[in-house]
Amino acid sequence: MNHWSTHQLTEFFAAVCSPQDERAAITIAVERAAEVLEAEVGAVLRGDRVEVARGVDRDLLDGALPAGPASQLSLPGLEDLNIGTARFGAEPRGSLMVARAGDPLDPEERQLLQAMAQTLGLALDNIALLTAERRLREEREREAAERLALVEAVREARHDSLTGLPTRVLFLEILAGKLRLTVPTSVLFIDLDRFKAVNDSLGHRAGDDLLGHVAARIRDCLRPADVGARIGGDEFAVLLDTTVADDAVPVAWRLIEALRRPFRISGRDVFIGASIGIATGTAGFDADDLLGNADVAMYRAKKDGPGKVIVFEPAMHAEALARLTLTADLRHALAADEFRLLYQPLIRLETGVATGVEALIRWKRPGRGYVPPVEFLPLAEENGMIADIGRWVLRAAGEQAARWRRTHPALTLNVNVSGRQLTDPQFAADVEQTLTGCGLPAGAVTLELTESVLMNDPRTAIACLGDLRDLGVGLAIDDFGTGYSSLSYLQRLPVDELKIDRAFISRAEPTAADLAVIRTVVELARTLKLRTVVEGVETEEQHRAMRELGCDYGQGYHLCRPIEPESVPAAFAAPLVT
Fold it and tell me: Which residue numbers delimit the EAL domain (predicted)?
């Protein structure tokens, strides 16, 4: 082979070996072979098919190739072309072909073509080997990554990434080990109070920061043998080694005191608290059951009010089961049309005339009679059903009030609103849509919100009430006087009415102290140009005292009990009291 062909072959070798995939190497081989041998057509054949072609359409060349060995090729637009082919591969894997017009390939050119084909075969073998090695390496890297991810998942399943505490899974494993011993073990179930308000107002990052600080304070209250864990959300658990319930109670109070102290979060002092349930077990107890008992006790503690400690008692299981059953029945009640509304008139104390009604929901549970609202409304608030129930009340009461107003156009309607509804960004739009659908003017409706709901997050409440005020509905603070901070916000809350809590007139004949408190509230309301409604008027003495103090309206059994919808028109026909 002469120097020129050796130089061309060297360049060919370098070009064909550079790609990392087979088709690119074949394409370069075809282009270089046709260029070096001055051929109009170049191709690589696999079996009896053209894989890559240069200078002619691949399908056209595929159809023009003669069957069997041939020295010439005829293509449309080209004179007869002289064919040169060379096989490549240890076994016949394919052929490198060129076809040119004019002189056929001489022996030296055929030798060069054969060398190119062999070079292409070596390059393809090398690419196949490198591809296999790369795939093997990628597979090993993938397996290593999967093993690492599995290890991380196992670790995360056993240790909370946010607090570093054991998770529920690891806590139950440790607890199960302790319960194989004969010594007693106590479990504390901790639920944070007011954590959601912090999370909603300061953001999730601040909430995560707070949980980390809570975990640190829990650790500080424990002995080395005790175990703290994050069970999920804002719930924690503590395992007190070799501890009976009586000895666990002081630890629980110590934890509550530690969590009452302010936390420095996002540059400000944040105050939360905790409710704790305690359960104790010995050998033979199931870990899940013991943790569940502590959870049941914690729920009772939370129900009794924030910052409480309750020790589990077996009777609590029956209560928890009844609560689960009540929850299931409550979910069914709305779809089954089991709710109904009664209406309690609002009486103008000066005249004894009813001017409006408050809608009061009642639930007749099939086979069990009426369920007091105090039993099912907090449960609905807790499980989120209160939003659907609240929408039903507003729609049903609104439709009824619209019918009454055809003959009593001055009649107004009061409807209670829950905290969950108030914090729903769509609530104002839902109210507007419902009132429009009922044909009830917004000015005829007053929404009542409890003082505790408004004071839980006053800034959010002010924003939500502003949206409602823009609709034109009236706003009232229900149970006024039961909170502790409302006076400082009262001027900023866009409300129209104060409903004085019945606790202030709980005595059949109010004392001088009772009257002094109510007089202060009435005078405050007058200064702020707010209506006053006193609740719980049960005796004539209370009625007379409230009228003399200047309260605008009253509600209570002495004035008028809650009545059926069909009795409402008659209540507006004449004064109910004199």
Answer: 323-576
